[in-house]
Amino acid sequence: MTYEAFHDTTIGELLSVQALRFPNQTFLRLGDERWTYADVELQACSLAAGLRELGLRPGDRLAVTLPNIPTHVITIFAAAKAGLILVPINVRRDKADVLARFAKTKPRALVAFSEVKQFDGLDHLEVAVETRDQIPELEFVISVSNAKSNKKRDIIAWESLLKDTAALAPVIAKPRDAAAIIHSLGSTGEPRGAILTHGGLVHNAAAMAERMDCVAQDIFLGAVPFSNTFGATAVLLACAVAGAQLVCLPHYHPSEALRLVKETGVTILSGVPTMFALELNHKDFDPSACATLRAGIMAGAPCPPELVRRAREEMDFKLLIGYGLTEASPAVTMTQLDDGPITATETVGVPMDGVDIKVIGANGERLANGEEGELCARGYNVMTGYWDDPQATAQVLDNEGWLHTGDLAIVDADGPVRIVGRKDEVIMRGGFKIHPGTVEMVLRSCPGVKDAAVVGVPDLIYGELTCACVVIEAGAKLSARDVLDFAGSRLPDYSRPDRVLFFDALPRRASVLAQKEYLRERARIHGHGWKFGKNIDTDAIIPARHCNTADPRELALHCMEDADAEFVKKMRRGDLIVADSNFGCGSSREVAPLTIKAAGVSAVVAKSFARIFFRNAINIGLPILECPQAVDGISEGDEIEVEPAAGVIRNLTTGEQYQAAPFPEFLRRIIDVGGLLAYAEERLAEKNL
Amino acid sequence: MAHTLAEKILAEKCDQKELSPGQFINARVDLVMASELSGVLAIEEFEKIKGARVWDPKKVVFIMDHFTPAKDIKSAEIVKQCREFANAHGIRFYDVGRAGIQHILLPEQGMIVPGDLIAGADSHTCTHGFIGAFGTGIGSTDAAVAMALGELWMKVPESLKFVYHGKPQKWVRGKDLILHTIARIGVEGARYQAMEFTGEALQHLDMSDRFSMANMAIEAGAKAGLFEADEMTRSFIRARGREDGLYLQSDPDAEYAEVYEFDVSEFEPFVAVPFIPENVKPVSQLNDVEIDQAVIGMCTNGNLEDLRAAAEILKGHQIHPRVRAVVIPGSQKVYLDALREGLIEIFISANCSVSTPTCGPCLGGHMGVLAAGEKCISTSNRNFRGRMGHISSELYLANPYVAAASAIAGRIISPNDL
Question: Which of A577, B30, B257, B351 has the greatest CB tally within 10 Å of its CB?
């Protein structure tokens, strides 16, 4: 099956064509409600007219923060038909995320909804209204939910924008025009808006529909958020390309996904690895209920071969593995329906038609097949750049149009690509390169392991050691030895973890890199102990020297320096603080721990949880080991090794070992999830349930 | 099993039959308090918590007291941020003219009763142990989470018992008892422990004395400083319109990490000399210390009884020509009561400056900051290097009688020597 007609067109045109070809075919389903292709076309044209009537002009940005509901789909097509550039925002983003995404893209209008209960208590309309106050360019807030207070807050009802299409002078977008700005995270977690074209998105969707042999009789499950490229392209647009049906799932839950598969006869099921893992492990999972499944794509994160195998076997369908990134609309490579078992589960397949790839070495030279290097992609699907960020664009897009993915890959001699890790995550252990992703996949397949992350920690002999951060399933009994034995039997000796740390949970952070950075801090175990023993009130001397300020932050920022000027300077990453005083009871209590953490200190060994400073260290996720004997037994500069989770402190200089007081479960959890604020979010979520 | 007052209050707050020292708990708080200084940071943290709402607006209070009335534009902006947040969330907000120093204001306004757990983003929140409430200082992150959840995590502290025997001599007040106690155990002597104050000597002292003692528990590193709520407490609480509260007592055989006994009848007024509150000397040994300033009031000694004590000394006198004296009532009510009693007239006639309630000079903020080399006697609670101003200035801590007498003499003296 090929869909050449859609290899060079626009999102608006795609819908118009399908509405002519399949006017009465169901396109969207939500519960018992259905929308035909003709319905969606009519409403999209009406909404486009309404948006134009508001005064929105081609090239203006329209932000959308909606769950997977039909109005979301209609809004996407309407934006295309009005020549607007879509800025989709995941409904799970919080206010700060939303603001960060709007600050650069400056949308003139926002379509949002208000479903406080289902989405973590965040009222998106409220955020929208507040956002409008901070982003002057945001003139119109449009709501798909009806609320009495809308008028008062100057919110436009989505329905009221459905205008007579006769009023709409056609906007002829071209396939090379920007259709959407979709955000990805840069290496430090900051959002970057990739500008994607109509042609790139639709062609990529067509290529995926072709890979899966999709036809009008197919039924897609719309579980992946339409606000990211995976959901928008591989699910929504690919479905439209095939003229097939799309069953909307507004709020993902594995049992709901399984129910819809069974009751609506879904044939195409796509998702991130976690979704498949949740579905397969769900108590309601019944292989026979998946009888209608035919094909689908697993993508969005490294796909563990075990999981792919299980899904293909237990759900009994042709699950393909996709590799891509937001900047490539997103698909770069994908496995194929007739791949053999190894290729189908352990590789990411071959490039999409029309997409070139190459693997380059450290100096940018092209590498031969079988050699490991950074994967680059070029083709119709690659973004034109990051919105208003030429510097970031230049970092990833070279003069010849190659997108540098940052992913390390090997192209096998017979064609398929293997992704081996992230360029910036490689652990260098005694001269060997270790890819955390490979080790993590093995660890996750260990019985009793719920989740795992692998980070490198500094070591005086090997340069770096491999540290496995492991979360055990409730009720499972697993020792570090068990985990090491399991990994040892499946990995080459140099890439076996050197150390296993158990966590109650892995940190909840926006980007994988930020999470890894956090875990590295937590896992750091080897450094020098520094005594911070001045018995002074660190906020007390501040006013004298900085009395021109009343800003607690400014006061506190000086506190460490004032308290012990040499102290901060000598700390290195991996070090720990040995505190035998009760310092810090003023403004410093907030910022001093942050200062210490920023300097790279990995733990505090204290005589007690004395005073406010110490609890604040825990509150920002810095472990404190309460152990008076260790405080007395460590001299300034001693080489120390600490296992925070186990509470073990070793003074390598003296050979003494100490055991800190045990941590209660909820304190460990505060540290593991990344601090008190993240813990509070968990508690709030529990309370709301 | 027998338990101390601290263990009993905390057990109530986490629905446990009993608690032992060292246990970690997530306790329900009865009140969350912040000043503008800690509040502004707490707001920032609060807004980072996804989906957070103030758990109970009636139980959260912001009191503007450190750099108020706004001493500069920045303070004004910080107060404004707190005001806007308070309005948006419907929490209690005390601004200039309606406020006072937070620790004086809370009991005065009937916001707390015995047995309450008070999480205050100010280290001197331990003050509220004077009515038998567990007050403890927290950071702004804790305050943010307490505002969202109404919970505070903590370790159950061990308790220390301080028994005061005898009848104090004239001029000896609660301030002298606590200064002597800190001198005895050191500034870390009660690190992360609850100090429990008891003994028949307390019958000769009043609630304001208990206030000063609990207030300075943090200066010995304590998590809380507690008095058992008794009949004196009950009439104090009733006078502030509250009938409720948990009047708990330690069991007679409860376990203490240490018990200290004192005979206060031998005490004379004490002075903490620079630069740490444990550096305590009897006032009689300090006759050659000339002072440039005296500050009377603020939180530690800012109650009406404290102002009466100062006025008793200052009545009919004028302060030394070289000395400046600043009197700072702890709240608007204290100020008004002092005015009605004629105390303010005594202060002004003695050439003292009378300030609106504020923490001001105590933390070197404003309203009486010291220049290089200056010496000051103060009724506040900390005398660290540079605390009230220039790094070379010196601060001496004392009770209001001694501070007033010293202001008159121009050097630190006992009221007996006036």
Answer: A577
Residues 6+ apart with CB under 8 A from A375: A332, A357, A358, A359, A405, A407, A408, A409, A417, A419
Taking an 8 Å cut-off on Cβ atoms, the answer to whether B41 and A688 are in contact is: no
Under the banding of pLDDT at 50, 70 and 90, the label for residue A532 is low
**CATH number of the domain at A7-410, please?**
3.40.50.12780
Inter-chain residue contact B78 with A553, CB threshold 8 Å: no
- Would the pLDDT of A478 be above 60? yes
Place of tokens 């070379």: B392
- State pLDDT tens for residues A255-265: 999 999 999 99
Cβ-defined contact of B142 to A553 (cutoff 8 Å): no
* A621 compared with A234, residue with greater pLDDT: A234
Q: Name the architecture of domain B5-16+25-261.
A: 2-Layer Sandwich (3.30)
Domain spans, chain A: 7-410, 426-508, 524-688
Name the architecture of domain B274-417.
Answer: 2-Layer Sandwich (3.30)
A/B interface, count of CB pairs below 8 Å: 164
Across A446-468, average pLDDT: 81
Q: How many CB atoms lie within 10 A of CB A633?
A: 18
- For chain B, what are the domain ranges? 5-16+25-261, 274-417
Q: Are the C-beta atoms of residues A208 and A234 closer than 8 Å to each other? A: yes
Is A550–B71 a contact, with Cβ atoms under 8 angstroms apart? yes
Comparing A647 with B261, the larger pLDDT belongs to B261
Superfamily of domain A426-508: ANL, C-terminal domain (3.30.300.30)
- Determine the Cα–Cα distance for residues A38 and A353; give it in Å rounded to an integer: 30
- If one compares A275 and A202, the residue with the highest pLDDT of the two is A202
pLDDT in tens, A367-394: 999 998 999 999 999 999 999 999 999 9
Phi and psi at residue B257, to the nearest 5°:
-65, -30
Strands B224-227 and A191-197: unpaired
B5-16+25-261 and B274-417: same fold? yes
Q: What superfamily in CATH does domain A524-688 come from?
A: Aconitase, domain 4 (3.20.19.10)
- On chain B, the residues whose CB falls within 8 A of the CB of A615 are 138-139, 142, 153-154
* Cα–Cα nearest to A600, from A636, A616, A576: A576
Residue of chain B with shortest Cα separation from A540: B387
Cβ contacts of B148 on chain A, cutoff 8 Å:
680, 684
Rounded Cα distance between B171 and B179, Å, is 14
Q: Which of A498-507, A564-573, B50-59 has the highest mean pLDDT?
A: B50-59
Amino acid present at A30: L
Q: Distance, in angstroms, between B359 CA and closest chain A CA?
A: 13
More confident: A652 or B125? B125
Spatial distance between the Cα atoms of A264 and A345, rounded to a whole number of angstroms: 28
